[in-house]
Structures are given as C-alpha cells and as structure tokens.
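// run 5 | inverse folding | seed 20
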C-alpha cells in the first residue's frame, strides 16, 4: 500500500461563510485504490500558491511511501529545506495530507481512526459553539451588541450547548499586539455580563481575542471580564510572544488558552512552559492527527487540557473528533454546524444537545460530496482569513464580524 495520487478541492462555503472564505480539502489515493480525506487550515499564501505547496509536499516527502510511515514523513516535512523548525505553510500542507493517511489506515483496518490512537477514552464529547447571529439579528450590528449576543447564547443553551465562545474585543489588525481601547474593554465586560445573565450557570463563557494585545493590555482586559468567570481567555497576546504569556497568566485567575496559530509539539511545549493550561491545536496546521496526539500527551503530563480548534470545514472537524475520543484530558471540541458543512461530506459527526457520540465508521468515517465540492469551487485570490491594515480606532470603536468571509 503506497501513496500514489493527490486531488485538491478548494471549496467556498456560501455566505456568510462560517468556517472561513474557503477550505482546502485534499484526497490522497494509494496505488491499490484506497482513498483518504484531509484538510489544510488557514494558509498564509493565496489558494493557488497553497495548492502548489501541497502538491510539492506530497511529491517530495510522501509519494510512494506507505501511509503507515507518518513519523518518517512528518520528520521529512519538518526538516524540509534544511529548516528543522516549524513552518506553518509547509507543515500546514503536510497536516492535511497526514489526516488523509489516517483515513486510509482506518479503512484498511476496518476501524475508526480513534481506535488506532489508543482506543476509545470518551464515548461522548462535549462541544462548544461560537455565537453567530440568528436570522432575526442585524448581521452587522450583532458583533457589537451585548444583548443580541446574550439572546443568541440563551438560544444555544436551550438547544443543549454548555459552552459558547465570543470575541468582541477588536480590531483584528496586523498591527497587534496593541493596547486595547477603553471602549473595547468596556464592551467586552458588557458582553460577558449580558451573556452570563442570560445563561446563568448552564454554560461556560469562552472569551477570545485572536492574539491582539500586548501583555499589559491583555491583563487590563482580563481584570474587566474576570467577575463573570469565563472558562478561558483565548490567545490574549500574539502567538510569537510566548514569554509574554507568562505575564498574563500571572495576573489573571482565568485559565489561558492558546494554539490556533501554533505549529508542532515544540511550540506547544513552550506554551505549556509559559503557563497555557488549555491547548487548542488546529490539526490542519499543527501537524495533523499524530502531532495532535503528541500535543495532547504533553498537555496531560503538564496538567493541562485539550480543546481542538475549528474554523474550517468538516474534514478537520472529523479529525478533531477522532483525536478527542482518544484523549483522557479532552476538555471539549469546537463545532460549526451549518447545512453546508453537513452536505459537503456524508457521515460527518453531528452535535446533538451539545454533545456528540464517538464515531463507529472506519477511517474518519466521512465521504466527500464531489459534485457539491466542484459546484462551490473557490476561484478567488483572497485568503481563508484576513486581518485589516488599519490600527485600533480609538474614537469610533472596533468590530469584527466573527470570521465572516465578507
């Protein structure tokens, strides 16, 4: 059984595009005809350039290799170009291809992927959702409206969700880290207050910032939201300032979470050293399922928990679920439930009442709807997610439309 061929599907979800502007889904085929699906998360270059990177990584490090040789192929990718250090573009490409290898291996052995990772630790996984506007909400004003967010949170809790995430403290600018505007600190506190009043003790509050602040600014923000007892303070500072993370950890009672933009176990080991206690690997960037398992093990040894990140399509979601089933220190998994996510692949693990059951189908248990993927091919040149050039607006406030593609 040797890896032989590669197909890439750049898929654009319909507006408003929850999960990003497009998803890079890969399908790898062996010489004997078995196939596996994977997904590359949030490339930092345009989609055509990223397709070329994925193709090169497959041809250079994986073609002709057994899908069992994941450690070997991973070391090749990490050492590519005499680097031997995390490269989110190269290793992101490998991450999606690596998922596809696990999908093939599970199918070949007629077992779910989690069964190859140590077995079923969790029969049922807790899931959380981001707060998106409901149909009757103003799609623009929602992101700066604490009452609308509280209403959406109450609706999700009524459906069974036990944790909701939100991130009102913009802007999401390439100029981070910066000191937050006082108006943004105030807005964040009002969001937390309104949502906590709406959900009471029925749900945890998950507060995100997308790494926008300097340590001192993150500490000011943490103190403003602490009275409402969030479960975590996500990415309070830019991902390249891990020593600064320790400053924030020392000054807040809120557990600090990070990992969406980190790559390899080495970077996650440093995050743990500097005080992160909830790790959020995006498996389509961090190195794939096997690297994710290593990250989970490092976290377990440090007394930290795992909460795999998701702002992508249904293939990375399936990988997150299989990893989560196998991990003793799983806290929860991030979910995006849209009709398009559901239609793009059959067999996708589904959240019901805020939880989902361990999948039983071999491999990742999903099959791509090729017709839908091709009908929604992304043909633009923008990135999966983008940050603005403009700095913090100190006079008019700041807003972030929840990762919407528009």
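// decoded
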């Amino acid at each position: 059984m040797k890896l032989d061929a590669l197909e890439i599907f750049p898929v654009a979800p319909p507006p408003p595009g929850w999960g990003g502007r497009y998803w890079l889904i890969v399908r790898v085929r062996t010489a004997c005809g078995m196939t596996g699906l994977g997904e590359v998360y949030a490339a930092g270059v345009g989609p055509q350039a990223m397709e070329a990177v994925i193709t090169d990584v497959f041809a250079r490090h994986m073609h002709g290799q057994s899908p069992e040789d994941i450690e070997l192929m991973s070391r090749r990718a990490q050492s590519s170009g005499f680097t031997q250090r995390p490269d989110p573009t190269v290793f992101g490409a490998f991450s999606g291809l690596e998922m596809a290898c696990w999908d093939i291996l599970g199918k070949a052995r007629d077992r779910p992927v989690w069964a190859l990772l140590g077995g079923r630790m969790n029969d049922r996984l807790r899931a959380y959702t981001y707060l998106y506007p409901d149909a009757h909400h103003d799609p623009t004003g929602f992101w700066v409206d604490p009452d609308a967010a509280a209403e959406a949170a109450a609706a999700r809790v009524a459906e069974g969700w036990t944790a909701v995430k939100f991130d009102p403290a913009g802007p999401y600018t390439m100029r981070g880290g910066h000191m937050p505007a006082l108006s943004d600190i105030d807005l964040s506190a009002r969001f937390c207050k309104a949502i906590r009043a709406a959900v009471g003790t029925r749900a945890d509050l998950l507060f995100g910032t997308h790494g926008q602040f300097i340590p001192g600014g993150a500490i000011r923000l943490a103190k403003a939201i602490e009275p409402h007892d969030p479960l975590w303070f996500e990415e309070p500072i830019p991902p390249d300032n891990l020593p600064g993370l320790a400053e924030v950890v020392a000054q807040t009672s809120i557990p600090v979470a990070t990992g969406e933009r980190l790559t390899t176990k080495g970077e996650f080991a440093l995050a743990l050293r500097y005080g992160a206690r909830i790790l959020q690997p995006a498996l389509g960037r961090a190195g794939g399922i096997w690297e994710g398992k290593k990250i989970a093990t490092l976290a377990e040894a440090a007394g930290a928990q795992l909460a795999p990140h998701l702002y992508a399509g249904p293939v990375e979601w399936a990988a997150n679920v299989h990893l989560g089933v196998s991990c003793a220190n799983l806290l929860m998994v991030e979910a995006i439930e849209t009709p398009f996510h559901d239609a793009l692949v059959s067999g996708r693990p589904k959240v019901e009442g805020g939880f989902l059951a361990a999948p039983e189908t071999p491999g990742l248990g999903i099959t791509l709807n090729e017709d839908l993927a091709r009908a929604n091919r992304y043909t633009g040149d923008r990135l999966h997610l983008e940050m603005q050039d403009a700095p913090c607006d100190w006079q008019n406030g700041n807003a972030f439309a929840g990762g919407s593609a528009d």
